[in-house]
Amino acid sequence: MELLDGKVVxxxxxxxxxxxxxxxxxxxxxxxxxVGDDEASKVYVRQKEKMAGDLGFDFRHVKLPENVTExxxxxxIDELNLDxxxxxxxxxxxxxxxxxxxxxxxxxxxxxxxxxxxxxxxxCLVHDxxxxxxxxxxxxxxxxxxxxxxxxxxxxxIVGRSxxxxxxxxxxxTNNNATVSLCxxxxxxxxxxxxxxxxxxxxxxxxxxxxxxxxxxxxxxxDVGINRQADGKLCGDVDFDSVKDKVSYITPVxxxxxxxxxxxxxxxxxxxxxLRKKLK
Length: 280
Ligand code: NAD
Known about the structure:
CATH class of the largest domain: Alpha Beta
CATH topology of the largest domain: Rossmann fold
Bound molecules: nicotinamide-adenine-dinucleotide
Strand order of the largest sheet: 1-11-8-7-5-6
Number of helices: 10
Oligomer: single chain
């Protein structure tokens, strides 16, 4: 078994972006809007801020109170949409109940939508048109490509159909000529699909859901899940110790997919800059 090391690939991607942005007329602008005090969100925003600082981006951290109204949040997005020096905008999820996340995500100009969650970018992805693609799925594909793991004609099973990971990944894998099964909480006989997968991606959020008897000999395992155990340590949705002697490759948690997500955000920010340049 070989580890798919997200840290190594992240470093490579970040170096490539650093090179690309080194001669631009101004620093790339990345705005992250955070609503409330969700603990996990704070960690994710800090990771993004660090990446942006390392690459010399102009990082705007817009913090709004938990009780902000949808209207107030939309106004903030409108201002960022109009700001010439802001290339990428994202709203850190989750947002409080009074705010409709779909409405918020779709207010971001598609050409600044570095999370790739607007209906326009989602539609482009389905139709295999060049667009801003959600960071985690793109990171998974880049990780597999870095390790020369073929996708074409492979049976790819994805467990979890969120808008952030499973659904866009199903499109990306289809666009890469894989045969895709997209499984979820209503799937009957999940094991039938997981044990037939050449590449198994699990994005559910349930610690150690997938064990050795549910994976195929020699499969490639991509574990997206991040779960906090009782002892405080993180683990994935796949029981690493149970499957490790049966599979060919596996992503560690932490140190796998999560590393790629922030690297892809850097890439998307550069891409958003080039998209707007083309529009001018
Ligand atoms: P989500 O919570 O929005 O959705 C979970 C999905 O799992 C749903 O589609 C549901 O139908 C499915 N599901 C639930 N129970 C199931 C079961 N028993 N069998 C089969 N399917 C089941 O998912 P999300 O936002 O994609 O997050 C999933 C996990 O991935 C979480 O642990 C999250 O923290 C993690 N995550 C990691 C990264 C990263 O960068 N590594 C990025 C995003 C999410």
